[in-house]
Each structure stands twice: as structure tokens, then as C-alpha cells.
Predict the 3D structure of the following.
Amino acid sequence: MGHEPFDLLPGTLDLLILKTLTSGPRHGYGIAQRLREVSAKVLIVGESSLYPALQRLLLNGWVKGAWGTSENNRRARYYTLTAAGRKQLAAERDEFERLVVAIQAVLRTA
Amino acid sequence: MTVWLRRLRYFLRRGRFDADLVDELALHEELTRRTLVDRGLDPARAAAEARRVLGGTVLARERAREVWVWPWLQDLGTDLRFAWRLVITDWAFTAAIVVVLALGIGVAHLQFALIRAICIRGLPIERVERVLFLGARDAGQRDISLAYQEFEHLRPRTAGISALAAFSSGPGVLGDVGLAPDRVQITYVSAPVFGILRETPLLGRPFVEADDRPGATPVAILTAGTWRSRFQGDPTVIGRRIRVNGTPTTVVGVMRDPLRFPAVTDAWLPLSSMPGIRSERRAARVLSVIARLADEGTLAATRASLAVASADLSRALPDHQADMTLTAVPINERYNGRLTDPVWLAFGGVAIVVLLIACANAANLLLTRAARRGHEMGVRASIGASRARLVRQLLVESAVLALISGVVGLVLSAAGLAVVNAIVPENTLAYWMRFDLDATTLLVLLAVSLGAVLVFGLAPAIHVARADTHALMKSGGRAGFRGRGGRRWMTVFLTTECGLTMVLLATLALGVRTAADAGRRFIAIDPTDVLTTWITLPADRYRSADARRAFYEELETRAAALPGVSAAGMATVLPLGGGAPRRLRLDGDDRTTSSDSPTIWTVTVNPQYFAALGVPLVRGRAFQPRDGQTGTGAAIVNQRFVDLFLAGSDPLGRRLQLVDPSSAAPPTPSMTIVGVAPVIRQRTAAADADPIVYIPMGAVPPVSAVLLLRTSSPGAALVAPLREVVRAMDAELPLDRTLSMREALDVSQWNTRVSAVLLYGIAGAAVCLAALGLYAVLSYAAQLRAREFGIRMALGAGSARMVGLIAKEAAAYLALGSMAGVACVYAFARLTASNGTVGGEPQLTDPGTLVAATGLLTVVAIVASVVPSWRATGVDPCQALRDS
């Protein structure tokens, strides 16, 4: 584990967390693991970024937290996407895709 | 909004949230460790790695919390807690500063509440800005009322309005079968008046046009207050026949509280039922007019139409007063006191000055504390507190003090209002003029308290911000706060304050002396053992002057015959109760024949009036029963009248005529002066005496009169027999306001007493402020010189010497202050000097007043230096030397 965690564009962490939750409720560690796996170990999110981000999503009402039991039988908070969160995800995703297209256009031509 | 609610929920359950987060982070670490172990790492290394890779959980918690709570808000909590602790532990300081600020805030707030009631709030009418007051101005731009014909003239000619109504108030009698009659205030109104005011009745109906036609069935509408007090709130009162001024009248409505338009009305009648409205009083100027602008109407259009109507007036009405113009203003402009009047400017000015003095004193006190806390600030700064943080902490401390002071100030101001309200007699203030606290005044209080923080809290905070940490630590905290500039500023401020305080003290001393004097100047009247009561003759049975004259003559005879009564006087007003202004025409005096003839005041009295007051005439004789009857015009003038108009000649036998400026009526028949009375004040006791002409009651028997019975014993025992006498003459006549002369004078002088309370209150506050201001500066000086004192004591100086040092400082301020004070008093006296003062009244600049004021200031200075002196003698030489 030598390499530094990948620098995310600002705001993209929220988007990624929301996307991760579309496949069902997860707890914090589960979200981090999922991001790591799906991104082929490129995206490693530290807890000092992950948990504040989750709190921000809770504050905005985009996710809901519910207490359950983890695979090792510990108390764990499972996050679920809310309707508002789904809307937000769609909006942010469109926004992000436009941004990516724009960046690629610049990289190809300029 | 919901985000805000979630924040609030977080705040309320922040303990739970934090615990949850800790659990979550622990689980995260645990799972990370297990994953590493599964990958074949040694458990101990896995645990270390898990902690290292994932970073500090503390940081995560901190940042998660910041998502919910702005960090500055959290720090604010700390500052508040700290400030509160300081409030408690440094209680003596807290008390001093709270007294200072609470006095300033309390005085300012009380003044604001009064000004708001008198000048700002206005009538509680829906869309009040669309309601106009129509009136007239004479050639001298004085507001005058309208005559009925003028109202009829302008009614169809006023443009841009949806409705127009005239009204006029006067005393009346409400009688009813089986109920004692009450003297009430009746307002005669045109039918649309309630529509213009946008008021609907609580019960029954408003007036309709048909009620206001000549010959209509007499109807009345009651105020809710009259309905409750006289009819016990009985809903069946609608349709009941009562007697108003003796006329059987049907009650058709009851209006809602608190409506008593225009001021303190008890019942409304249609304008057409006003006695003489269409006959003998056509020319009398008794009507006021209000109107509501139509939706598309504008004030400018209405004014333009009134200008045209004014021009038409003299053509339409032959006997019309030529030089008059019709005017229209928004109703509140007419009914509210004008904020730009000197009296209100002065009133508001005093409030601001007192508040500023309080703030400056508080700033000085805070500086003394900052001097004491320099070391603490130095330590905080050196262990990393930013300047902004320190300044904020000091401002929070100031704000906490200001809010505490605001609460105490509110209590002071509420108490002040209670005193003022207790003095104001019932039925004196218009229904919409309430001296009370409401949401607006509370908001102003809050704004003033917090605004004060910026004024008094900023200076000490800036001092701290400017201070050099290193120097602070080295000098034990005093380096940042010394400096000649600061002390010079304090001296200038304190001298100014002493000057202003001296003016207030001199005014106070003068007030006390004048009050004591007023008793003596009043010699004319002997108010002991005089019973007064008011009688109003209803228009229906006493329409003619003869009927009223006969009634008063009979009453005089019967009342004088009561056992223990030595004289039965009667008058239209009591002493200090005012008078009717008239223009004077004195035979053989050119000054009085011009159009701008002098104004004198008239009081109508009966033959026994001066005997009842216990006042012997200076010259000539009192009235006799036949005076005033046709062909026997007689008048009595007062000494002031003689001094002004007849100095050096014999007043007796001179002839005069009077003109009523408010009516188009011709001058009165010529009257011969038969006597000269001493000066009995009719307006205020403080102002110059007015020239007065006493007219015999037989000449113009009034509708309403006050009876004055001089008795050989306290008058209370006479009330019942007197009631019997009046009932025997007319069963439907109430006695109103039956009081001893002393009580009656007190009530009539309520506005003087209110101003006295305010004056004494403000002066008292100023004295406290001056004392605390001096105290703050002296303590500050003692604080700065603690090291010097320590050395002096170490070298053997005794306590007396220490006290002497402080006293020297105090004496210097006192000398400067008194000099400034005397100068201020002279300037103030010059500013407020009125022209034509009769000599002999106490003056602001009298040696007596100045000595009294300086004496008071000296006492203040001595009191203020007690604590600092005591502190100075308590300086421990070792401690003082070690500290530095």
C-alpha cells in the first residue's frame, strides 16, 4: 500500500458515495471497500474524508442512516439513498459527465 | 429550511451523534484490521497499519462535527460560558457596569416609549395613511376648526375621497331609568365616520345617513367601555331607550375596544342632533373633518380641490372670515406630536446624551478591567490565541454585560412608565395614546443594548488588539493600556460629563427651589378646605341662557346655605385649569385696536368665586348678582393685566371688549373694569403669569361649571348634602369629578408632574453616572500607579498619604468639572432664557443654584473616590513591586 490516495475532484466524493448506495444499503466501511474494488484500488478513501462526507449527505437529506448489525456482529450504521438523494445523484452525474466531456474536448484539441 | 431543522436536531442531540460516530469509526478500524489479517498480515502490525493508513479518528470526528455546526458557533459557546463565569466571579465590576448601562438604556428606552406614544404610533386605523384630516388655517397660519356652513360648503367640493365626516366633542349627560346619571364625553359625528375609520360595531349597527337627517329618531352608539361600566355588558342594550342630555334616545350599536374616537369619547350621536348645529351655532367653529382617500385619489388632488373651495368660500358665505384657507393633512400628522418640535428634539437629545455618557462610562470601566487583565491576555496571545479571537471574546463579554443591563434597563423603564401612568389622570389621554411596552419598543431596546456594545466595547477590544504580546508579558499587562493619549481622552470626557451633569444638577436644584417657591407664589389661593365638583347642564332643558343663569343663581344660594359652607364659588375653570383665549380691545389704547391685538385669557366666575378661593381683591369690588345682565357689563382683571396694559393709570372704570378668535361672532358688549384681582395662575405655575379678564357668570352662563365650596371643616362630609341639593333642583344632574381643591390641582397639573418625574429621574441617573464615571477613572489611575504606590509605601508613606494622592487626582477632576459645569450652566441658561421674565423667579445662574449644584457634584466626587482610595491604601508593596 505504498501509493498516495488518489486526489478526487471537489464534490466527486459525494457523487461516488451516492452512486455506491444505488445497489443497496451499506455501512461506512462497506462504501470505502466498494469504491476501492470498483475502481481497481485507485480510489482509496480515508475515514477523515469519508465520514464528514457522509455527515454532509445526512445533513442535506440525501441519505438516511439506520442502525443494524455488521458481518462481524457489531453495531453498524447502514446508509440508504433517499428520493432526494437519487435526484441529486442524477443531477450531479449529468453535471459530472458534461465536465468530463468538456475536459476531454480540451485535452484532445488544445 | 429542513437542513436548518436537521442542524437544530443535531444540536439538541449532539451527545448521541458524537457517540454514534465514535462507534462507526471503531467499527471501520476493526474491519480494516480484519481485512489486513485476512491478507496474511501479523495481527499487531495489521492493527498499527489500520490506524496509520486511515488517519486519526479524532480528525474525522472533528471534521464530521464541523459539517453540522459552524466552528465559530462552537467557539461562541465557549466565549459565552467564559463571559458568564466572569460576570459571576467579578460581580462587583458587573454590578458597576450594569448600573451604568442600565441607567443609560433605561432612560433612553423610557424616553423612546414616550416619544413613540406621542409622536410616532398615531391612530390605530387600518391604512391610516389614506385617512386625511381636513381643517383650516387663519391668516396667521394657525389651525382653526370649521363652522357648519364651511363643512357643508366643502363636502361636495373635495375631490379624490371616498367619504367625508365631520365631528365635534362636548360634555353631556347619560341618564337612564333607575340609574344615576353620568357626565360623559359625547362626540357628534357624520354617519360615514365609522366607515372612514374602518371600524365595525361589536353589537348592533353603525350610523346610516338616515340617522343624520334633521328630525330623525334620536339614536346613539356606545363605546365598549361605557357599555361595560354602565350596562354591565348586557347584549340586550341594543334597541334600549336611554336619555342623552335628557332626550330619549335609542341605542343602536356598541363599538369595539379600544375605539373612543377622536380621543376619550363615551358615546357617539349623529351630527344633526348636536345642539344648535343648524341654528345659532352655524357660525361657531366647532367642527373637525376627516376623510378617506378613494383608491384612485391622491393627497395632491384633494389639496388642489380644497384650494379652489377656499377661493369660493368668501363668495358663497357672505359673513365668512375672509383670510382663511382650507387644508388637508394625513390624520397622524395632525394628531401626533411633531418630532421636529424643540421639546421633542430636546427630549430625544437628552436620551441620546445620557445613553452616550453611559456607554463612555462603561468603556472606561472596561478599560480599567483590561488593565487588570493585561497579563491574562498576554498569556492567551502567546499560547496561540489569535487577535481576532481575543477581540471577539472581549466583545462577547461586552455583549453579555449589555444584555444583562438591557434587562435591568427594561425593568427601570417599565417602572418609569408605571409612575407616569399613575400620574396621568383617567380620561385624559386619547384612546390611542398608551404609554406601554410592546414588541417594537422591546426590539428597540435589544438594538440599543447591542448597539451600545459597539460604542463601549470596541475601545477596550481595540486596545487589546493593538497591544504587543511581548510588551504585555514583560510589563505585567500594563504596557498596552498606558499611554498619554488614552488618559487625556478620559480627562476630556470626564470634564465634559461633569459639565453636563452640572447642568442637570442645576436644573434639578432650580426645580426644587421653584417648586418650593411655587407654593409661596400661589399665596393667592388657599386650597385647604375647598370642595370642588363639576356640573354640566344638558342642552335640552337648559337651552336658553336664562334657564342656565337661573339654575346657577339658585344653586349658589342653596349651596351657600349648607351648614359649614362659608362661600359658594363657581367658575368655568379651576386655577391652573387654563382659560379661554380672547383678543383684547381696550378703549383708549391703540395697541389693542390693530388686527394683531394682544391675547388675554378669560375665566367666567360668579360673585362668590374670590371669597371661595380665599383671595381678597387688590382693588375695587367683586361681582354682584346683577353684573353681566343686559346693560351692566362688568369685568375684573388681574394684576398682570394692569401691569401690562394699564400701568400708571387707574384701571377702575376703564372699558374693554373681547373678540373670540375662533368664531366669526362680533365682539362682546363693552365691559367696565370694576375690580383688580391678584395673580392666580390659570395655565402653568412655572411660566409667566397671564393677563386674565374675569367675566361675570350672569353675562354668559356656561354649559358646564365647577362649584367651589369653602368649608369650615374637611369637605368630604359635604358631598352627600350637596348631592341632595342638586337632586332637589334637577334629578338628572350628576356631580362629576368631586375632589378636594388640592386633589383637583394635582390632577390638573399632571403634565407638570410628569415632566418633574422625568427631570428628577434623568438628573438622578446623571448623578449616578457621573459618580461611576469618576470612580472608573480614579480606579484606573490607581491601577496604573499601583507600582508607584507600592514604592511609596515601601519607602514609608502612610495610608493617609495614599488617600491624599487619590484625593488630589479627584480634586483636579472636580475643579475642571465644576469650571466646565458653571460654563455649561451659563450657556444653557442663555439658550433657554425666555423673553420678558418678571424678576424674582429663581434662575439657573443664581449663586444659590450654582452652589447647590457644585455641592452635589463635590459629594459625588467624594463618594466616587472612596473605593479607589481604599484600594490604594490596600496595595501590598511587595506584591506591587513583584508584579512589575
Q: What stands out?
A: Confidence is low (pLDDT under 50) at residues 476-484, 835-839 of chain B. Chain B is about 50% helix and 15% strand. Chain B touches chain A through 32 residues (CB under 8 Å). The first helix of chain B runs from residue 2 to 12.
